[in-house]
Automatic annotation (TrEMBL), chains A, B:
HTH gntR-type domain span: 12-80
Cross-referenced Gene3D superfamilies: Aspartate Aminotransferase, domain 1, Type I PLP-dependent aspartate aminotransferase-like (Major domain), Winged helix-like DNA-binding domain superfamily/Winged helix DNA-binding domain
Name of this protein: GntR family transcriptional regulator
Species: Clostridium omnivorum
Keywords carried by this UniProt record: DNA-binding, Pyridoxal phosphate, Transcription, Transcription regulation
Similarity remark: In the C-terminal section; belongs to the class-I pyridoxal-phosphate-dependent aminotransferase family.
């Protein structure tokens, strides 16, 4: 008897489901040492699956020493003794909470295609390491240690490293944000900031509004909190205000999540007038805004547009999330929340209950970079470096993807909307030619966006950018030709 | 009309509740600029509260510029214009989720008495900064940067910094832990480790077993997850096995949380035979163990006792949590989970969804300390340093607290059980004399432990240890004399 329970709807890859279930059977003793497994051909027929998934599964099982494949004879359960030696074996995956299962299912690192060696990858939007100046890192670290000494190594405060908070206060005031009655909490980057905010002001089945498409990590966190999403379309790269008002007026929404600057994935910037309009609408319907300012600094040419938090003035209806991860070092897990003082008091206790505080060394290093002026110089270099890649990417997209719609006004990526072509089909073909990118559907909260994708250019050379675009353009033509 | 809604049962101090509610009334415009507040005497009569709480509240309101107290005239609402300028004012504290409210309520940093300048503090169990060697920190940091360069500053892996994981594998094997079918996940210390484990394998109203008393942060996290607690008494500093079996057999418990080495707060070590017995019991009732090994390294004289994770061998029923925070640098937020490989895969996705990964620089620095041998040398120095304080504390406790029961076999603290004296009463009196400690009730899951307290000696000089014990002893005598 050989029964596997494969869920075709699950985000977990088929081959992985096969692997996990066979391992469980081996470890629980249902499949004993030396017993023969069905061939991959038989398995694919029994389960009505692609033979490739079965082959992939058996390869992994062999690599993990659960089975041995003997040429011409078949696949046999091996090493069972080793795994059966357990007098006490808990089937942990079965024990996991729904929350944990969702975290696995929504973990695109585990489900999306992986960049292979030698590929031109437009997937990443992490900074280019070539920009990092180790001498500056050394100097700023040693300065921090020299100034503050041993106490940097003992417990810090949940709220954050005080000199950094004080520096950010000045930095934010310079950006026009009024801090009267507000406060700052340091977090382990945007991800933690958004997670603890949702944990603190929502409960399951609450509804929240976001742009569609939007940052995929935000979608993941929203789904992990079991919230309902009222999504609002983007129109020419900006939120559709009529739709927003409809959403605001029709539901009891807990908050509106927005990325006004260098929107992820679209790379677009919401105009100053639209920001004001959106702000007034949210105020009218008493629905707070969570503003994601994650790469607001990556301005190339367009003039500065004030954050919605600045538009709010003294009002306390905006929660602003900041981070320098994308512009300085992602490895330094430091972000911050600017919000009403009373709310920050609560978030501080939540933060403390989850990990006591953010790494003091990371915070100290960031502070030293800011204070020494190295950050400002670095930003100038960074903007110049990425602007060249950005402009070249725009140029290439016009040349090689002539019938597509191109979005992006800065930042580290551009966003492409194809006419009538499935970007998953395109991705498959492009990967065969050595190019990988982020399919657009992962940024949409409903089944939309199948004809879109995001191209991150930050880590690619101009040569690879051009080559990559050329290959994608060729793949599109091939797909059209075969229709 | 002046109505406040004071909850006497809440863990939030009375004065804080008064402050928050008056601020809300001022900010919402219920109390307008210039209006007179009741006097503290009147307020204490209306609300049936101690006058002290009211005075404390008014002092804080004045410090925060919400009211001005004019001698001989009374307290008046001030600065209202500033706060009322808000066209949009959200009463955030009211908006918060029950989870967030619990996090505030359970945050002892906000509710327990604060150490004031000049006090002898037995409250802290953080390491003494005098032990930190900045030259070693500099050298190890620079070595790490020189070896790994720029990639340390870019995104890392949710699972952790690979060289550190590989080092820990060897380290754990040396301690007799079998890693067959198991894996390691790096976390932001114990707190995050325990939090994501509970989030991943429990749901609200599930039941878990723990020792009573136990680590107060663990209790907080358990309560935040809305779990029921089946507590098992400690008997001569070890868990009562009969009670444990009763708890295991009578409920459907998700896990047993244990601190076998240098138990917090008792400082006791579970014997090897008891560990075996406890392990077999949990196995019999198929209830996994979460073993907190947070300061297992702080062994002074007693011979090494293997962790329960080592007793388990190949079995996968133990989740082991490790950390060097208490023995190296707490500021470095690095801990780890050793568990079944399948479970670690799930926890990795949960970790990624919460903060992407732990600071790479922290992990790198810890790894360099381990690899260079500095950690081992440091541990020798540390043990010697704390052993002296430990032995002296035991000596002092026998001398100055002769009628008390003393627990503690190492680590950074000892635990005192008084005969028929309330440690909160003792604490109040001791604080008047300039000594502070951690009252024992915060470590108990029920109303027990009122006659106990924990004395952390790690950061005190021998002189202050003696002085502190003498003062506590004197306070006990005074209390007895006044009975």
């Amino acid at each position: 008897m050989f029964l596997l329970d494969i869920d075709l709807e699950s985000k977990e890859p088929i081959y992985k489901q096969i692997v996990d279930q066979i391992i469980t059977m081996i470890e629980e003793g249902t499949l004993t040492s030396g017993s023969k497994l069905p061939s991959t051909r038989e398995l694919s027929l029994i389960l009505k699956l692609s033979r490739n998934s079965c082959i992939h599964a058996y390869e992994e099982l062999e690599a993990r020493e659960y089975i041995s494949i003997i040429k011409g004879k078949g696949a046999f359960v091996s090493n069972v003794q080793k795994h059966l030696n357990r007098g006490w074996n808990i089937a942990w995956k079965k024990q996991c909470s729904d929350y944990a299962k969702r975290a696995v299912e929504l973990d695109i690192i585990k489900s999306e295609p992986v960049t292979k060696k030698g590929m031109i990858s437009f997937k990443s939007i992490a900074p280019d390491e070539k920009l990092f100046d180790l001498e500056q890192v050394r100097r700023n670290f040693l300065n921090g240690i020299a100034l503050e000494g041993e106490k940097l190594l003992n417990y810090g405060y949940a709220k954050g490293y005080r000199p950094l908070i004080e520096y950010l206060e000045i930095y934010l005031k310079d950006k026009g944000i009024c801090l009267e009655g507000k406060d700052i909490l340091i977090t382990n980057g945007f991800t933690e900031a958004f997670d603890i905010i949702l944990a603190s002001i929502t409960k399951p089945l609450d509804s929240i509004i976001c742009e569609n498409p939007t940052h995929n990590t935000a979608i993941k966190i929203i789904k992990l909190h079991e919230l309902n999403i009222a999504s609002v379309s983007m129109e020419n790269g900006e939120i559709n205000v009529e739709e927003l008002e409809k959403a605001l007026s029709s539901g009891n929404n807990k908050l509106v999540y927005l990325i006004p600057s260098y929107h992820n994935p679209m790379g677009t910037v919401m105009s100053a007038s639209k920001r004001k309009e959106v702000y007034e609408l949210c105020k009218k319907y008493n629905t707070p805004i969570v503003e994601d300012g994650f790469n607001e600094e990556l301005l190339y040419s367009s003039s500065h547009v004030s954050s919605i938090a600045a538009v709010a003035g003294m009002d306390n209806g905006v929660i602003y999330l900041g981070s320098f991860s994308k512009v300085l070092f992602p490895g330094i897990r430091v972000g911050w929340i600017v919000a009403d003082k009373g709310l920050i008091e609560v978030l501080e206790s939540v933060k403390r209950s989850r990990n006591i505080h953010t790494s003091v060394l990371d915070q100290m290093l960031l502070y030293q970079f800011l204070k020494s002026g190295d950050f400002e110089l670095y930003m100038k270099k960074t903007r110049k470096f990425y602007r060249e890649k950005y402009e070249f990417s725009i140029e290439c997209s016009k040349r090689y993807l002539p019938h597509s719609r191109i979005y992006g006004e800065g930042g580290l990526y551009i966003f492409i909307e194809l006419v009538d072509i499935d970007s998953r089909v395109l991705l498959k073909r492009a990967m065969e030619k050595g190019v990988i990118f982020m399919p657009g559907d992962i940024f949409f909260v409903n089944e939309k966006g199948r004809n879109t994708f995001r191209l991150g250019f930050s880590r690619l050379s101009l040569k690879d950018i051009e080559k990559g675009f050329r290959i994608i353009g060729k793949c599109i033509e091939d797909i059209k030709a075969n229709k």
